Amino acid sequence: MADPPGPLILSNELLKDVLDFIDADPDGTVNIDRRAYLSVESFRPPSLPEPSRAHDIGNFRLVCRRFAEVGIPYQFTKIATRFSRPGLERLDKICSQSHLAKHTRKFSYLVPYFYVDDREQIERLLESEGRHFNLLDPSIFRRKADDQRYILQMKEDSRILKKAMAAFVSLQHVQILRLQDEGDRILLDMMEASAIPRATMLDLKWTPACIHATSTVAQALLHTRSPFSRFSGPMMNSQSALVIKDRIPQMVPELASRLTCLELHFDDGEALNERMQAASQLFKTVFLAARNLQALHIGFPSRSPLNLRLEEIFHFVQWEKLRAFGIQAWRLEADEIIQLARRHRTTLRGLRLRDVQLRDGSMWKDVLAMLRHEMERLDWVSLRRVDYSKHFDDLWANSMEIVDGSLGGSDSDDEEDFPAHFSVPGSDYESGDDIDSEDEHSLADTDHGPDANEIALSPNTTASLPFCTCSRSSDPASADDLGDNGMFVFYQQRKMWEQWVIGRCPEHSSN
Q1: Which has the least CB within 10 A, 36, 272, 299, 315?
Q2: In whole angstroms, what is the distance from residue 378 CA to residue 50 CA?
Q3: What pTM does this model have?
Q4: Sign of torsion, CA 354 360 364 370?
Q5: What number of helices (H) and strands (E) belong to the chain?
Q6: Residues whose CB falls within 8 Å of the CB of residue 175, separated by 6 or more in sequence, listed in order
Q7: CA separation (Å) from 303 to 78, 306, 396, 402?
Q8: Is 489 helix (H, G, I), strand (E, B) or coil?
């Protein structure tokens, strides 16, 4: 009796269906029109692969040559590399094999704090304050410092990044993330919890790490004429913008001209206004060159809203293809938001105004009325933690922490603010598989509750014929009925405001 046919007779399509049960659609991304895009696709750090998933895909590819070929996209569509000797060596091996590298569409660069200048100080601190740091081995930090010194002196990162960017012929998305491993986390937590005088504590350096990573990645992209079109920096240091302006100004326009999506979040509040003002011309250069932008987000720390006018950063630029726009943590006049939105009223599908605080004399109802009546294609708007500047300051003056819903209710957002770090358990973690994010394959919009997928329409959705819904709507008839008191915003109000803006009557709205 003949043996039953084995899996080798299955077609490649059926084999891909099998792999989809392990790791669904490796090429899947969140459409930029969707409200989840800025939170999931670009700002969520890549999650660690589940050991079973990585193991199963690895075993699948070991069956035979055909299985190995079918499984390549499930391992190499997204590559995450840490700034370390093992991480860069692994990247070097991947990009040396063109049949693997050609599948890479997203590259995440995980950059740790720099220890190069602090090696001796770290050892002295751990030895002199051993009672506080008995869980840490000084040799771990010594090895990190030695690794970083070698990479920087030999310029290994620059060499390998240029090689990788040349090999990634299908690259679309580049992301730079701050990496905080278990050793860093324990060290920081212990310093914060201990009674050690601050003068003897370490200043773990993210600024030089961010500057170096941004410069080397930019040089690699420019050197290789990479096809990338999306850049995300959810943990950027504001000083890095000034260094880029001074060190590599000739690179900026050419790189910016390739962008369709740009997401930057600056995570430090120190001298933020002064540094952003000094970088104003750099932003102007970038935005004038980036004529093809479809999605744009610029954000700052929630507790330190930027105190500059909107156009000191955006310079009255109009992007003809812009479909999603977001800002976070800004003190603004209502007219500033209205003017920028009005420039893009025929193209904008999504608008995020997270942690925006209106100044005295401005009212949210004026912004909302304009968005409802003039934005021709707006499908969603996010108003998470919007408020009035004076009320925001009063809350901070009387509290150590502001949480959304502090005036009642809770938010539907289940993601944190753009994370301050990407923690990796185990200081020497290196996966044989690529780090990716399961959230990128989800259609759930965790930023605005259960009605998300009904609001966030695909650009290919067929519009229905206009019909009047005025008599059936329970929404306020006008902006004057929104309950805006010009002093503070309740959680329930802003959720209702979001729905009111996009709930316009198809027949009687101006569009």
Answers
A1: 315
A2: 38
A3: 0.78
A4: negative
A5: 20, 11
A6: 42, 46, 106, 107, 108, 109, 231, 232, 233, 234
A7: 33, 10, 8, 8
A8: coil
- Which are the contacts of 189, defined by CB distance < 8 A and separation ≥ 6? none
| Alpha carbons 450 and 466: distance in angstroms, whole number | 25
Amino acid 95: pLDDT = 95
Taking alpha carbons only, the member of 116, 246, 94 closest to residue 171 is 94
Q: Are 295 and 38 within 8 A, CB to CB? A: yes
457: its two tokens: 């329409």
- Residue 430's nearest CA partner among 53, 151, 3, 48 is 48
CA distance 286 to 291: 9
- Which H/E stretch holds residue 382? strand 380-382
At residue 279, the 3 state secondary structure works out as: coil
pLDDT of residue 71: 75
Cα angle value 31/228/456 (rounded, 5°): 10
- Any idea what the Cα angle at residue 225 is, between residues 324 and 150, rounded to 5°? 100
What CA–CA distance (Å, rounded) separates 123 from 120? 5
- Contact by Cβ (8 Å): 396, 402: yes
Closest CA to 109 of 413, 422, 372: 422
**Separation in Å, CA 342 to CA 293, 339, 372, 485:** 17, 5, 11, 24
DSSP string for residues in 51-63: HHHHHHHHHHHTS
* Residue-wise pLDDT tens digits, 145-173: 889 999 999 999 999 999 999 999 999 99
Q: In this structure, are strands 173-181 and 324-332 parallel, antiparallel, or unpaired?
A: unpaired
Reported as a pLDDT band with limits 50, 70 and 90, residue 405 is very low
Question: Whose CA is closest to 30, among 362, 249, 263, 271?
Answer: 263
| Element spanning 285, H or E | helix 280-289
Rounded CA separation 38/263 (Å): 8
Is 407 exposed, middle or buried, given 0-12, 13-18 or 19+ CB atoms closer than 10 A?
middle
With left for phi above 0 and alpha for psi between -120 and 50, is residue 267 left, alpha or beta? alpha
The helix-helix angle for 51-61 and 65-76 (nearest 10°) equals 150
